[in-house]
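# nightly structure sweep
# worker-07 picked up a monomer target from the shared queue
# config: single-sequence mode, recycle default, output format = structure tokens
# input follows
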Amino acid sequence: MLNQRKKVLKERQKIARQSVLNENLVSSNKTKSENTQAYEASQDLQAITKKFFIEYFTYDSQNTYIKRKNRVHGIATSSVLNDKKLFNNGLDKTGHSIIDAEQITSSYDGSNAYVSGIDQKQIVSGIVEVSYSSRKGSHSSSKTTYTYLVKFDSNQRKLIQIQRVGTTGTVVN
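# output follows
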């Protein structure tokens, strides 16, 4: 009973919040409208990049490494999916699996997305910091944080560009 009431309350809050956001978007108050647009862009970018990077950084075999691309095809354009810097085949020069040979596993730890701009075509530009943990065989795991420049088409609801620009370091556990 209590869980059902909480669920109903949460749904009503969601409807009320969406109503206020919609009202603000069509408001004649330019600042209110722009702030609402920025808020929605921030929420969308955080959600879509989290979904992408959970799949991207979660694998434990050559098979799951290769399947990452298929798991994000609904939220990324073909230009992102065909980017060899993001999605290589995981094989060495002799054609053997690096992932399986080194017993590499990886798991997503968390991410934060920050909007840097929205253009007239509703393309949201931003920066995403992503942390993940990886391990080689029985060795200690390490936690790494990468920084990415991203672009998200809010009309298509897809990531259209992802570019790794740096790292804030690796910590060995």
